[in-house]
Amino acid sequence: MTLALDSAAQDLLFREARTANTFTDEPVTEEQVQAIYDLVKFGPTAFNQSPLRVVLVRSEEARERLAPHMAEGNRAKTASAPLVAILAADNEFHEELPNLFPAFPKAKDMFFSERPVRERAAAFNAALQAAYFLVGVRAAGLAAGPMTGFDFTGVQKEFLDGDHTPLMIVNIGKPGDDAWFPRSPRLAYDEVVTAV
Questions:
Q1: Is the pTM of this model over 0.85?
Q2: Which residues, given as ranges, of the chain have pLDDT below 70?
C-alpha cells in the first residue's frame, strides 16, 4: 500500500528528518514562522484545546538569559541556532474553549474547572501540538533540534509564568556542517504493533 504523500514529502517530513546539532547563520524569518504556525494549527487536539504556546528567542539579550538554563551539551548549539523556540503548555487553555469549541460551550466548566485536570490535559495536548510544530518546521525546509536538556523551573521563571509549563526547547534553522549524528535504530513494526 502506498501513502497519500509522495516519497519526497515522506522523506522530508520523516525518513530524512533528523535532529540538527549545527546550523548555518541564515536567519529564520517571521514569515517562515507564521507559515509554520498557519499549517500546524490545524492538527487535532481533544476539544480543540490548542494549549501550545511558543516563545521565540531571537535577541542576543534573550539568548544570554536562556543559556544558563541549558544543559552544558546544549548551550553551544542553542547559542548558534538562528532561532530558538520555547514550547510550553498553557494550563489556563480552558479560557479559550468557548471560542475554540463552540459545539460544546459548557466543556470549559464541565471538564476543566480543576487545575490538576487542566494541567494533565494541557501537557498531553500541547505535546501533540509540539510534534506537529516539529513536522511543520521540516515542511518549511528547515531543521529542528528539539531538546529537553534544560532547567525547566529556571526557564519557566525566566520566560513564562506559573500558568505555563515548558515542554521543550527547539533550535530552528538550516542545518550546518556536521549537523547530524549517525541515524539511530528504530523498532520494527512487529515490535510495536500488536493485533488482538
A1: yes
A2: 1
Q: How far apart are CA 166 and CA 154, in angstroms?
A: 10
Report how far residue 184's alpha carbon sits from residue 182's, in angstroms, rounded to the nearest whole number: 6
pLDDT at residue 1, as a whole number: 67
Q: φ, ψ for residue 74 (rounded to 5)?
A: -105, -10
Instruction: Report the side by side order of strands in the sheet with 52-57.
Output: 52-57, 83-90, 164-173, 143-147
- What are the φ/ψ torsions at residue 22 (nearest 5 degrees)? -135, 155
Q: Which of 89, 76, 80 shows the shortest CA–CA distance to 155?
A: 89
Alpha-carbon gap, residue 86 to 70, rounded angstroms: 12
Listed residue (177, 180, 169) closest to 25, CA to CA = 177
Q: How far apart are CA 131 and CA 129, in angstroms?
A: 5
CA separation, residue 50 to residues 58, 112, 131 (Å): 24, 14, 13
DSSP string, the chain: ---SS-HHHHIIIIIT--B-S-B-SPPPPHHHHHHHHHHHTTS--GGG---EEEEEE-SHHHHHHHGGGB-HHHHHHHHHSSEEEEEEEETTGGGGHHHH-TT-TTHHHHHS-SHHHHHHHHHHHHHHHHHHHHHHHHHTT-EEEEE--B-HHHHHHHH--TTEEEEEEEEEESB-TT--PPPPP---HHHH----
